[in-house]
Amino acid sequence: MPSEAPPRPRGRPRAGINRLVFDATLDTVEEVGYAHATVDRIAARAGIAKTTIYRRWPTKGTLIVDCLIDAIGPAPFEGADRREKLASAIRWAADKLGEPGVGDAFAGVFSDGVSDPELRLVLSSRLQEPYRLAVQTALDQPEREALLFIDIVVGTLLHRMGMTGRPMVEEDVEALIELVTSYFH
Amino acid sequence: MPSEAPPRPRGRPRAGINRLVFDATLDTVEEVGYAHATVDRIAARAGIAKTTIYRRWPTKGTLIVDCLIDAIGPAPFEGADRREKLASAIRWAADKLGEPGVGDAFAGVFSDGVSDPELRLVLSSRLQEPYRLAVQTALDQPEREALLFIDIVVGTLLHRMGMTGRPMVEEDVEALIELVTSYFH
Questions:
Q1: Is residue A118 part of a domain?
Q2: Contact A35 B114 (CB under 8 A)
């Protein structure tokens, strides 16, 4: 036996597991919907043990939140002035929520949050907080305005998806941009 | 035995059953959250057989939609001009979604709709359509604008509830009114 062979790592590296689980999560949500996307099903799809998931994410809600943070990533605020920056962020949000499984996972975890205070805390502190800070900087307005901006943009996009099953079309995204940037100018 | 006693009615009148079931639905949703408010639990709370519910509402989604239509009722558009009418409807929507169980039931059925085309059809045709028509008349603008108005108002109010667990405070409702009425003037 060649002694120079490096020892086989025990288990997979953390990032590899996260990738597997996050991909399996969005695929499962897209296929069977949020309510039926149980940790059992997600684990089966990822090809790993359910306990591996529960070791990292104690609840389905925390898994979905981390999966969304991974899928959505940081918001861009690009452009020469505040209006352009806000417009680029709104277009980006519309695109992201339209990605397979993302809008569904978002609407689902969000609706669970209405009756789950712990999950709400995770949602607002882990998922929303970084965007709130970025919006506040881009708007150059107090926290209250930044939170209202997020409610309006994300709430409107999610409501449209819930009613039509499809992301908002570009023409309506532009109307939303016009409406929001006229107010937060 | 007195022969003049009227025959005992078989079963309860339809309206009586609906009332029982709708009240039990909102109470159950408020207590255990939308996801855990099963038809089993709702039937137990209403003190009726599960089959009685399924005879009228084939799915939990259709039950929740009828319950919401009953709880929310027609939208008022009161005031001297379009701005006042829209403002009164937005204030009313904020109050209604803040009633116990209503925001939670709404957010839940809505999130199920993202991955359930049949439920989406029920949601948009039975729940949203009457409001869409009323908004369209009040706005005196095409269908597209009326749908955007509903997405913005309802989406924003639900997003706030999902993040905070509480209805939007009056100060923010007034900001939302200002933003929406400036656009749809």
A1: yes
A2: no
